[in-house]
Amino acid sequence: MFGKILGFENSNIFVENNKGVADTNYIGYHVVFPEPDHKIVGEIIGIGEKQVTIMLIGEIINGKFSNGVLKKPSMNSVARIIFKSELESILGNQNYLDHANLLFGTSPIYKDYVITSSLNNFFANHFAIIGNTGSGKSCGLARLIQNVFFTSSNELPKNAHVCLFDVYGEYYNTFDEMDKFPGLHFKKYTTQQEFGSSQLLTIPAYFLGVDDLAILLGATEPTQLPVLAKAIDLVKIFKSHDPKAEEHKNDIIAKCVLDILSSGKSSTQLRDQVVSVLSSYNTETLNLNSLIRQPGYDRTLRQCLNIDDQGKINSMNLVIDFLQKHIRVDIDKVELQGDVTYTLSDLYYALEFALINEGALTSETVFDRNNVLKSRLQSIINSSKVNYFAFDDYISKPEFVEKFFTAGEGGETAQLVDINLSFIEDRFAKCLTKIFSKLFFEYTTELEDRGSYSIHIILEEAHRYVQNDSDISVIGYNIFDRITKEGRKYGTIIGFITQRPNELSKTALSQCSNFVVFRLFYPEDLNIVRGISSNVTDETIEKIKTLHPGMGLVFGTAFKVPLLVSFPLPNPMPISTSLRIDEVWYN
What region, left, alpha or beta, does residue 29 occupy, with left being phi > 0 and alpha being psi -120 to 50 degrees? Predict the structure, then answer.
């Protein structure tokens, strides 16, 4: 078929077509140009009656394929179709039952060949699965996970920890077969308040840090963070059972009241604000009925706040002296002992006090800026969302994560966990996804033995959550950007599943090492794919536009060259099939 070399243009070689027939069945086949000490590999990208166009893709040296060509074939070199023994170095190891190899699917070019990669090269790196609706993303992901867990291999991934954030509940019954394999378990969480056998997704309110609260309550500027930090400090003091807690409470209440008394407002305003604070926030020793003793008589604190005929608080000095006696400790330096649990309602109580303590009662600007946080927290408390943060007993964060990936009462690992987010709106789902992802990331970063416990986070419809949003300007970072930049070395890996890569965070997407691209049409999305890798040529982009459902293009560090893969349908299927109007309308 191949004759002499006619010419070169960039990475393309034009070879004489000895057959004189434009047999397009050979397009996509690989060819080899034998050289004395190595072999140059190319892919047929065009066939005419007179010439064949071959794109050079790499070299085979000592039986191993390397991407890229340092030197073009000599003019007297004659091409040939690649041998089967050479093909495996490109398509991947054909022994896909070996647990070190990850099966993707079959080759649409070479009959009876499969496409595999090193399990480590794929799952030790962040990855993205991209494609339009109906192109096969969900089925491709399901098939890939089933290939990992539904195997006849004697070696099973019993120490895997994969968390799938399932936006539509598509995968809820897709991996039930896992439990048939000894030591493997599939666990389900639901966001449906009235649920059946699945466990309601919950996270303790006392796990929420400043950044978590900022995300949950929709903070819009960094100046709101100190109030949230203050609220967390306060709620731990208010709910602590440490004997020192009483001194802490007295200290912060006394400081708050003194701030009010020194605000310069009218006597009536001062009295009303102090009464309001001490009515809600008080202790056994510091309250409105506390006795202020003077020679000859005792008066309560409330009585000392009375206003005389001159319009002044008649015992202001006595009140100030009494309050100053309770200022004893610095709550920022003294740590309370014991585990502290609290609810969102407790946190609301502390946030309200934090607003007062930060000067909200003496500054209308401060109050207006921060009061919206309190209103949003109250809205969550008054809704069914509060149930997602209900947790009765104390549990540490490491224990929570380990229990999250534990199946049943036996204490065995649940290698795959599905979180069905289909019962909550997008904004709240985005908050929960960020909070849990941050929790997983922090768990792996704090392990003494780095990388000993890997967690894979797979985000369906990732463009909804992994965006260039306001997190960076408010809390200083985007958790998904941080995980993609830092998580790999600690064992936290993210997989993005999206139909709109152009809406995804550019930082997060740029950190992905492997890609599975199904059919795409939108020009901006195609440009994103074109810019991902130098191996993605214009010919590759044209292939992506015309891919059949269930067929994808794989490329990245786990693959020698971009390869077409036909993904077999998963069994069971996810609930993601396209609507059949002919059946719905005429049933």
Answer: beta
* DSSP calls for 174-196: TTGGGGGSTT--EEEEE--SS-S
Q: What is the DSSP letter of 72?
A: P
DSSP β-ladder status, 186-190 and 162-166: unpaired
Beta strands (DSSP E) in 82-171 are 101-106, 114-118, 127-130, 162-166
How do beta strands 416-420 and 186-190 pair? parallel
Contact 554, 122 (CB under 8 A): no
- Helix intervals (H) in 413-478: 426-445, 471-474
Please, what's the b/e burial string for 195-214 (b: 16 or more CB within 10 A of its CB; e: otherwise)?
eeebeebebbbbbbbbbbbb
- Report how far residue 564's alpha carbon sits from residue 575's, in angstroms, rounded to the nearest whole number: 25
**Which residue type sits at 341?**
T
Instruction: Please give the Cα distance from 517 to 80 (Å, whole number).
Output: 30
CA dihedral 511, 517, 521, 523 (to 10 degrees): 30
Residue 331 has a pLDDT of 53
Q: What is the reported pLDDT for 152?
A: 64
Instruction: Check residue 524 and report its DSSP letter.
Output: H
A 10 A CB-CB count for 571 gives 11
| CA atoms 205, 210, 215, 220: torsion sign | positive
Position of tokens 């008054």? 382
- What are φ and ψ of residue 239, in 5° steps? -100, 0
Q: What is the pLDDT of residue 241?
A: 81
Contact by Cβ (8 Å): 491, 454: yes
One DSSP character per residue, 466-520 reads SSS-THHHHTS--HHHHIIIIIHHHTEEEEEEES-GGGS-HHHHHT--EEEE---
> Which residues lie below 8 Å from residue 333, measured CB to CB, with a gap of 6+?
none
**Phi and psi torsions of 259, nearest 5°:** -60, -40
Contact (CB, 8 A) for 403 and 395: yes
Comparing C-alpha atoms, which of 551, 508, 566 is closest to residue 131?
A: 551
Regions of the chain where pLDDT drops below 70:
152-153, 195-197, 329-334, 359-366, 577-578
Count of CB atoms situated within 10 Å of the CB of 508: 25
Predicted pLDDT at 154: 72
In the structure, how many helices (H) and strands (E) does the chain have? 20, 23
Largest CA distance in the chain: 122
